[in-house]
């Protein structure tokens, strides 16, 4: 009989955590971490690697019990997703900046009318690019699923720690969106409407885009509409997400007529 | 099989109570929904097990069930049961929301001077402020929202699991009923103050965007502290008023979709 490789404690932990994460994804995150049992994980590890693990290998050695293991898996999941959110934003950033450059092509940014038009074009083009990237990555689902999984670990004091991780990831996304919006404000010579802040806008924008993705998955895509918003009243194609973002931009920002570069 | 709980000693309680298959199904579904709603944020959809439902029924109804009472008789297993409960939650979602909003708006209609465009505009803004706050309140309640979130997720991630096709159907039906009701509310409210949809935009598009905004705000509020209330000089004679950021965003969508109706005449 083939001799079983001896795993160090840390290797065993890593193997079990990865198997647990994979099971949670496959079984459906919405149904929570409770479906994650040691037996299921042992079976999976054996099927994939040929390594046999028993309760005696892990209980007391790596985790105090199954609940502690579940929390560890969800924590790993949370950390991975937080990191993935960050990397998604990097990709979005690049795509959005390219679309901004296209939107502003040929505009005279010393002219307030052109700057107002530039804001509209950025909303129209960049929202399509940004929400396309979000849709492809199923970012919002992963994030919300992760949240549900965390809540699924009921009765655990560690839930607080996991919620903190989620909050940190969301805050980081907000900060990056805020940075992007600030850059655009400077570029276009915009100022906030009285009483409103860049933080208010960014929160509204992010909430809208995430909610839009969620609704889109449930209700299906909404067709684009044609609006006479071109420079000379010509027709332009608008996604519904872009209409929403443009509405928000108009309410929160205004062109600063005194802005100078 | 239904057996009375042994803890209770009166003869009535000891008497064997028989429920029909349908009654048992209804009882377990209602119990499942109750568990999800009552245990709120901490519970998660995964906390719903047959064992948990049986304990709940024994505690509240003094009836005892076993897996044998339901598995193979009513549901093939736990997954199918969960899917049916989630479908029920989806069906019930948001039913109270529209009533709460309608109630909060009534006083603003009493104050409007329909002959004055500025008064009509001010009324629209107040309707946005008050209506959005009223709409967000029940959604912000974790007990109401988290099961719904679970429903959405279970649908998105578990489409292949038993019973999930029924769940998907229930979600679409629930969203569609809710959307239709909101379309009527928004259209009638705006018509009442002489506003109309900007062509070619429609009520169903507006409802979809507002729904997205509300979902996004609720999701954000469940992971980070909401931003502070916003003070805007929107009151009478420019007096300051408190706005929720959601209300400001809702107003933004309203102005993008609606405009004063040039053909409208105030009712005599």
Describe the fold and architecture.
- The complex is a heterodimer of chains A (261) and B (268).
- In chain A, helix 4 runs antiparallel to helix 5, helix 5 crosses helix 9 and helix 8 runs antiparallel to helix 9.
- A two-stranded antiparallel ribbon of chain A has the order 1-4.
- Chain A is elongated, with a radius of gyration of 24 Å.
- By secondary structure, chain A is mainly α.
- Chain B has 268 residues and is mainly alpha-helical.
- In chain B, helix 2 packs across helix 3.
- In chain B, the strands form three sheets. In chain B, strands 1-2 form a two-stranded antiparallel ribbon.
- The relative contact order of chain B is 0.11.
- The N terminus of chain B is likely disordered.
- Chain B is 66% helix and 7% strand.
- In chain B, a hairpin with an 8-residue loop joins strand 4 and strand 5.
- The longest helix of chain B is centred in the middle third of the chain and has 29 residues.
- The interface between A and B is large, with 59 and 57 residues.
- Percent strand of chain B equals 5-15%
Give the biggest beta sheet of chain A. Answer: 2 strands, antiparallel
Mean residue pLDDT of chain B: 79
Low-confidence stretches of chain B: 1-16
Work out the largest interface and the residue count of each chain: A-B, 59 and 57 residues
CA radius of gyration of chain B is: 24 Å
- Poorly predicted regions of chain A are none
Number of helices of chain A: 9
Strand proportion of chain A: under 5%
Distance between the termini of chain B: 67 Å
Give the total of beta strands of chain A: 4
Q: Helical element count of chain B?
A: 11
Tell me the major beta sheet of chain B.
2 strands, antiparallel
- Which term fits the overall shape of chain B? elongated
Morphology call of chain A: elongated
Helix content of chain A: 55-70%
User: What is the number of beta strands of chain B?
Assistant: 6
Q: In what order do the strands lie side by side in the largest sheet of chain B?
A: 1-2
């Amino acid at each position: 009989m083939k001799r079983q490789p001896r795993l160090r404690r840390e290797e065993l932990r890593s193997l079990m955590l990865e198997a647990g994460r994979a099971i949670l994804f496959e079984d459906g995150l919405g149904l929570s971490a409770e479906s994650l049992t040691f037996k299921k994980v042992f079976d999976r590890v054996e099927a994939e690697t040929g390594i046999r693990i028993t309760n005696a290998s892990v209980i007391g050695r790596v985790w105090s019990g199954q609940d502690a293991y579940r929390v560890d898996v969800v924590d790993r999941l949370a950390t991975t997703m937080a990191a993935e959110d960050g990397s998604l934003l990097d990709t979005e950033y690049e795509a959005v900046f390219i679309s901004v450059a296209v939107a502003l092509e040929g505009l005279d940014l010393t002219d307030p009318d052109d700057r107002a038009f530039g804001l509209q074009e950025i909303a129209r083009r960049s929202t399509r690019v940004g929400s396309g990237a979000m849709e492809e990555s199923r970012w919002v689902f992963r994030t919300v699923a992760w949240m549900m999984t965390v809540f699924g670990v009921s009765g655990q004091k560690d839930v607080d720690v996991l919620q903190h991780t989620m909050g940190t990831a969301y805050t980081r996304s907000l900060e990056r969106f805020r940075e992007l919006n600030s850059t655009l404000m400077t570029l276009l010579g915009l100022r906030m409407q009285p009483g409103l802040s860049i933080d208010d806008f960014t929160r509204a924008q992010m909430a809208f885009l995430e909610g839009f993705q969620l609704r889109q998955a449930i209700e299906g895509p909404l067709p684009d509409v044609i609006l006479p918003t071109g420079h000379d009243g010509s027709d332009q194609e608008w996604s519904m997400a872009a209409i929403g973002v443009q509405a928000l931009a108009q309410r929160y920002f205004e062109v600063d007529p005194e802005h100078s570069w | 099989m239904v057996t009375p709980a042994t803890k209770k000693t009166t003869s009535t309680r000891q008497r064997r109570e028989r429920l029909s298959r349908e009654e048992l199904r209804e009882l377990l579904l209602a119990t499942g929904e109750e568990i999800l709603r009552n245990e709120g944020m901490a519970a998660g959809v995964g906390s719903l097990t047959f064992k948990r439902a049986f304990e709940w029924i024994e505690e509240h109804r003094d009836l005892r069930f076993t897996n044998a009472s339901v598995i193979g008789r009513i549901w093939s297993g736990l997954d199918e049961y969960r899917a049916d409960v989630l479908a029920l939650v989806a069906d019930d979602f948001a039913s109270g929301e529209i009533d709460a909003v309608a109630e909060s708006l009534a006083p603003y209609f009493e104050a409007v001077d329909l002959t004055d465009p500025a008064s009509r505009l001010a009324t629209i803004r107040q309707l946005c402020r008050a209506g959005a706050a009223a709409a967000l309140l029940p959604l912000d309640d974790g007990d109401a929202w988290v099961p719904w979130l679970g429903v959405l997720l279970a649908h998105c991630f578990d489409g292949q699991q038993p019973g999930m096709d029924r769940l998907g159907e229930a979600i679409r039906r629930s969203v569609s009923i809710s959307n239709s009701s909101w379309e009527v509310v928004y259209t009638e409210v705006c018509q009442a103050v002489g506003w109309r949809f900007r062509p070619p935009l429609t009520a169903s598009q507006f409802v979809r965007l507002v729904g997205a905004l509300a979902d996004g705000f609720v999701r954000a509020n469940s992971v980070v502290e909401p931003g502070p209330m916003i003070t805007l000089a929107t009151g009478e004679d420019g007096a300051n008023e408190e706005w929720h950021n959601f209300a400001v965003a809702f107003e933004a969508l309203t102005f993008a979709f609606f405009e004063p109706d040039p053909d409208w005449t105030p009712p005599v």
